[in-house]
Amino acid sequence: MNEKIFDSSFFSKLENISIKTRMAMTQGTAGGRKSNVKGNSVEFSDFREYTPGDDFRRVDWNAYGRFNKLFLKLFMEEREALLNIFIDCSKSMDYGINKKAVMAMRISGVLTYSALSNLDRVIINKVNDNNIIQSSSYMGKGRFQETLQFIEKTDYRGSTNLSGAIKKKNFTGRGISVIISDFFTSGSIINAIKYLAYKKQHIIFIQVLSREELMPELNGPVRLVDIESGEDINIIITPKLLDRYKENLKTMRSSIKEQLSSYGGSFIQVTSDEELDKIVFEDLSREGII
């Protein structure tokens, strides 16, 4: 995209979000934060290899002396979560006066910042057509700028088959999978949910829609052009047709939400012109994501 997504305005909002999050944590009781990284138990559990950005204070120097490799000591309550963020990169996301793609990337940035601050591991997955472009595995706040550069270098084109692409993903164990999309996709969204559940993922769907899609201001004869395929249709927009459209959109959302709920997942719908603070502290916070 040509416009700068992670600008000074984004970072000032991110700082504001960070401050409010810290305030909320200090006002709660110990252990009250919803997190997959827990405590500082002294009971040793496991090792893993060091990744740039990890805390050097947790390096096992005895293991380094034996193997000439850096390893981190993990304790019983310190098993990190792996957060996979999937961004729909189809052309339909590049729509609206306030583009859905911009909101999707900003939400990805906030989730990444929150996870890295919490010592979780993050992988960004750009989904286009039937394929995934996967980032490195990031850990530690020192790599936050690197994640933003990867997110920002995204082209929105063509269509997306979320289910087909996600089934190509190699999951290495339990984790959290966040899919950010308008869900105007080919393939079965339900099959994608079932596959993620089978792979032991806690599933979070964030649907980003533009104000024009939620409340279309169309009337009379119009020519509609599919932004992804280029196909067009001449149609007469009536109040009855608009009501049917809104009802179908509502049914789509309810169906996805019901399927996710049956697997313990969450569904959030946001609008591309909403304030980021509101999305974080009302929508994401309500679901325990932030």
TrEMBL record:
Residues 46-250 form the DUF58 domain. It holds the Pfam family DUF58. Transmembrane segments: none annotated. SUPFAM superfamilies: vWA-like (SSF53300). This is DUF58 domain-containing protein. It comes from Clostridium oryzae.
